[in-house]
Amino acid sequence: MGIAVKRLMKKAAANPALVQGLMGNAVGRWLVQRLLASQQRAYATRQARTAALKVEPAAAVAEIVVEPSPAAVAITPEMLAVEAMTSMPATLTDTPNNNDRYHEDTSMSAIAALFQSMQSRFNAQAAAGLDAVFQFELTDGDTTHIVIENQTCQVVDGEHDDPTVTLIMDSDTLQQVMTGELDGMQAFMTGRIRADGNIMLATKLNNLFPLD
Fold first, then answer.
1. How many whole angstroms separate alpha carbon 96 and alpha carbon 92?
2. What are the φ/ψ torsions at residue 96 (nearest 5 degrees)?
3. Would you say residue 135 lies in a domain?
4. How many Å apart are CA 87 and CA 30, to the nearest integer?
5. Residue 148, SS3 per DSSP
6. In a shared domain, residues 117 and 210
7. Domain limits at 173?
8. Which of 22, 75, 127, 155 could crosslink 28 through cysteines, CB 3.0-4.6 Å?
9. How far apart (Å, rounded) are the C-alpha atoms in residues 12 and 23?
């Protein structure tokens, strides 16, 4: 790859607006595709290095059991207090993961509402001649796919057998990108979004689901 092309790719990685401008011609689209592929390879390399650095946990240390001394043990008021506390019935607030489950349910509801809003924002004109399946795989949640066919849009829970492109991210990234808080191209460049399949198709999301 020429030095000039490398310099342009470096500038594009730091400037999402430049990437959008490059999409206007065939050479620019080729460059963006190379840039996205490069970012994906770099992310995979970082993941592999991180996995290689993980150290296997040390072998469990054998538990040493010490038999109690036959000598009498004096019962103190502190010991009685501890016994009374441990024998008390658990309350609702003591239930493990009760609070976590509430937040998890709230997050899932927010994600479901987000996908429904995408369906209502769907731009049928931008989907002219496009038949594709966008799959969203959340690393901290469920998988949802969107079927675009004959200028219609359908949101479906679960995985698709053969998605055109799969976008992998966490739920926070999805919400930030779809609400305009985070630029989608910048999320690609920084590794917050990974893609499998037709990577270039992901660049059409802004036109298919405009925020305005």
1. 9
2. -65, 140
3. yes
4. 69
5. strand
6. yes
7. 110-212
8. 22
9. 11
Q: What does DSSP assign to residue 196?
A: E
66 in any annotated domain: no
User: 154: helix, coil or strand?
Assistant: strand
116 and 200 both lie in a single domain: yes
**Number of structural domains in the chain:** 2
Instruction: Give how far Cα 21 sits from Cα of 15, 18, 77, Å.
Output: 10, 5, 76
Q: Is residue 51 part of a domain?
A: no
Helix or strand or coil: residue 165?
A: strand
* Residue 134 and residue 205 in contact, taking contact as beta carbons nearer than 8 Å: yes
Which amino acid is present at 61? V
Quote the pTM value: 0.57
**pLDDT truncated to tens, each residue of the chain (212 aa)?**
556 555 655 665 566 666 566 666 666 667 767 777 776 677 667 767 777 776 555 444 445 455 555 554 555 555 555 444 444 444 333 444 554 544 455 577 888 899 999 989 999 999 999 999 999 999 999 999 999 999 999 999 999 999 999 999 999 999 999 888 998 888 988 999 999 999 889 889 989 999 87
**Which domain CATH number covers 144?**
3.30.1050.10
Residue ranges of E strands in 94-193: 132-138, 143-149, 152-157, 165-169
User: Do the domain assignments include residue 94?
Assistant: no
Which residue in 110, 96, 126, 87 sits closest to 205, CA to CA? 126
Say if residue 206 is in the same domain as residue 116: yes
